[in-house]
Amino acid sequence: MPSDIRNSVLLSTFYNGKKKMKVIFHKGNIVWDNEKPPSEQYTLPVENIISIQHNYLRSTHPSENRQVDPNCFTIHYSERGKYAKWVYKNISFKHPDALQISSWVKTLQSHLQNLRKRPKHLLLFVNPFGGKRNAMQIYEKYGKHLFNIAGIEVTVNVSQRKDQIKDYIVNHNLDMFDSVACVGGDGTLSELFNGLVLRECRMRGVDADDINQNLPKPKIPVGIIPGGSTDTIAYCIHGTTDPTTAVLHIIFGDSLGLDLVSVYDEHNLLHLYASVLSYGYLGDVAYHSDQYRWMGPRRYDYSGFKKLVRNKGYQGEIAIYTESAGIEELICTENCEKCEISKKRNCDKLGCKWQTLSGKFFMVSGANISCACSRSPKGIAPYSHLGDGTVHLVLVKHTSILNNLRLLLRLSSADSSVEDLPFVETFSAREFCFRAIEGHSRWNCDGEIQHQTNIRCKV
Ligand SMILES: Nc1ncnc2c1ncn2[C@@H]1O[C@H](COP(=O)(O)OP(=O)(O)OP(=O)(O)O)[C@@H](O)[C@H]1O
C-alpha cells in the first residue's frame, strides 16, 4: 500500500440522521462518536468494511436515472456477533460540503482496493437438490444483495445432476474467476474440491491414481455457503452454519488451510474428502437414508434408528501410520497454532510407524475435522485439526446395543465426548489402510457412498 494512503488521516463532523458525529480515520481504523455526550464511540477496522458508496438522491419519477447525492455516503460493514456469527451493518454520513464527502469516499475506497485478497469475480455453484432443496433461495436471500454491495461479479451455475459441478470444474476454463464457492452441503463442497484437485493434476501432468504422488493443492480460494442437511464442513470452518457469516467470509477473502484426505483402492484414486470417512454404522446410515431424501435432514434419525437396532458389527483389519500414541486434547481454534506449525513443517512424516489392529467394529471413522454440527456439538473427533496434516481415527468396537446408544448420546451431547468411552480407541494418523474381513458395510465419504470396502487413505 503506498505510504501516503497508509498514513492518511481524515477528521470531519458529519450528520447521521439528526445526530452530529465526529468521525476520524487514522491508521486503518474509522472511529465515530456523538459530538455531544453520551459517548457511543465505535471503532471500525478497515478490514471489516464491505464497501463505501455514495448515496443516491430520491428520484421523483421511476423513469428518471438515479443521481448521486454529493453530500452523503454510506459505509457498509460487518460486525462480529454472538456465537461466531458476523452480521451486516451500515451507517450513512452527511455533510453540506460535497468536497468533504468525496475526499472520504476516495480515501476509503483506495484503502479497500489495496486489500488484495478479496474476490472480484466469483463462480458460484448452487445445488438445488441437497438439504431442504432451498439453496437458490438461500443465495437470493443472503448472498445476492451482499455480493452486490461488495461489488463482486457473481456467475451463478445451478447444478442439474450429481457430479456436474466436478465435471464442470475439470473441463472448463476458470481463468476469469478469482474464487469459486458453492451453496450446498458437504457433498456439494466435496464435488468442488475434488474437481479442483483433478483439474490441477491434469494441468501439471500428475497421475492422480498414483498414491506415491503428492496431489497438488488448488490455487483458487474455495468458499461454502451452507445449504445442505448437516453442513459439517461449513460449521467447522466458520463456527456456525449462518449463511450471512459464510457470505461475509467469502467477501473478505478469509482463508485457512484445510487438509484433504485422498482415498484409494488398489488401483485408483476414489475420492478426496474433507470431513469424515466412516465405515460400519455411519456408512449404513448414509446408504440407507439416501432413499428417504424427501424427509429432509430427518432421514438421518429414521435410518439411524433402524441401522442401530440391526447392527451386528463388521470384522476388519486396520493399519495406521502414526507418529504418536495418544491424541493431544487441544481444540482447533481461529489462527490455530498447531495448524500453523504443521504448515511450516510441511507435514513431514519423520517418526511415523505402521501399527495394525483387527477386530469387530461398530464403526471405523477417519475424521479430518472435528465434524461438529448442530446435531453433534463436539463432533466425533473434538481434537481433530483443520490443517495439521493428520486425520483422527475413531475406532468403535462392536459391543452391546446399550453401548452403541451411549455412543450416540455422547455424539449428540455438548458436554462430553466419545473418546473416553472404554470401547472407543482414537489415533492421530497420516495414513491408514482398511481391509474388510467379514460382514461387509460401505464407506460414508463426506456423506457420499463408497462401495469399495478395502481402501488406503492419505492426508
Ligand atoms: N441437481 C442435482 N441433482 C441431484 N443431485 C445433485 C444435484 N446437484 C448436486 N447433487 C448431489 O447432491 C448430493 C447431496 O448434496 P449435499 O451433500 O450438498 O446435500 P446434503 O446431503 O443434504 O447435505 P450434507 O452433506 O451437508 O448432509 C451430492 O452428492 C451432490 O453431488
TrEMBL record:
Entry-linked InterPro entries: ATP-NAD_kinase_N, CERK_C, CERK_PH, Diacylglycerol_kinase_cat_dom, Lipid_Phosphate_FormReg, NAD/diacylglycerol_kinase_sf
Residue ranges constituting the DAGKc domain according to the UniProt record: 117-267
Gene Ontology annotations of biological process type: ceramide metabolic process
GO molecular function, one term: ceramide kinase activity
GO cellular component, one term: membrane
Recorded superkingdom: Eukaryota
The name this protein goes by in its record: DAGKc domain-containing protein
Top-level taxonomy: Eukaryota, Metazoa, Ecdysozoa, Arthropoda, Hexapoda
